[in-house]
Amino acid sequence: MGTSLQVVEQLSPGRNVDAYVQSVSTIPILTAEEEKELAERLHYQNDLEAARQLVMSHLRFVVHIARSYSGYGLPLGDLIQEGNVGLMKAVKRFDPTMGVRLVSFAVHWIKAEMHEFILRNWRIVKIATTKAQRKLFFNLRSQKKGLGWMSNDEVEAVALDLGVDAKTVRQMEGRLASTDTAFDAPVDSDEDSAWQAPAAYLEDHSADPASQLEAADWEESSQRALMAAMEALDERSRDILMQRWLNEEKATLHDLAAQYGVSAERIRQLEKNAMNKIKAAMVA
């Protein structure tokens, strides 16, 4: 996998994430037959060039997953880099005889790396969100006399000493005593222990990663095609469509007729011609 790692490092998001995303989106998606052939070359012949092509063709999928974790406040570029590591691990372990697409197999490995990164960099911040909670987080352990739960007198004493109310002390004590439970099983877990993870009990046939990625790519491609078709129209036709269909407050045929000094029927004709041009451009 050394060759694949070098390629991913060359395309690392770095500071210019937008340029990276644009670059990986131009890499063609493999057909099922192409993917099977490359996977067999890697599995049976240890063909590193096949591994490189499998990794490169799935980089856009890592970006798609990384964007779903944007709400954690972590840099998108860092999430993508962690996901790329998981992708390479998945490619290395992928067995083409199992009869599944690589994207369905790799999603666990990609998310596992991202989850580990998020837990390392996010939990300690989110456990204390207010000023009072942050103050408690760094001082409560030193104030407690033992490992057990504090008594009411101890809570009152800590609250008085730190200048917060007793309820806040109790809340933070509960947070410090709690532990995180991973949704997915650890990457190195065996089959006997993997079933204990919550993810083993959930199934959603509608959330196929490959279908979601295909739909997202199709929507983005359609929007680009629409904008390009609109730009190709003359200024008057473009303005008519904008006011008739895209603006929040839609204009009537008579409103536009008064604006351009023509009949409402002429506006309707211009609108119809512009729509036909856009349809033809998008189909092309």
Q: What can you see in these coordinates?
A:
With 284 residues, this protein is mostly helical. The chain folds into 3 domains: 2-125, Up-down Bundle (Four Helix Bundle (Hemerythrin (Met), subunit A)), CATH 1.20.120; 127-177; 209-283, Arc Repressor Mutant, subunit A (Orthogonal Bundle), CATH 1.10.10.10. Helix content is 70%, strand content 0%. The chain contains 15 helices and no strands. The protein has helices at residues 2-10, 17-25, 32-45, 48-57, 59-67, 76-93, 102-126, 131-143, 152-162, 166-177, 191-194, 209-232, 235-246, 253-260, 264-283. Helix 1 packs parallel to helix 4 (48-57) and helix 13 (235-246) packs across helix 15. The model is unreliable at 1-8 (pLDDT under 50). Interacts with the RNA polymerase core enzyme. Belongs to the sigma-70 factor family. RpoH subfamily.
Number of strands: 0
Radius of gyration: 28 Å
Q: How many distinct helices?
A: 15
Oligomer: single chain
Strand content: under 5%
Number of domains: 3
CATH topology of the largest domain: Four Helix Bundle (Hemerythrin (Met), subunit A)
Which bin fits the share of residues in helices? 55-70%
**Which runs of at least 5 residues are low in confidence (pLDDT < 50)?**
1-8
Region (Sigma-70 factor domain-2): 54-123
Main location: cytoplasm
Function: Sigma factors are initiation factors that promote the attachment of RNA polymerase to specific initiation sites and are then released. This sigma factor is involved in regulation of expression of heat shock genes.
Subcellular location: Cytoplasm
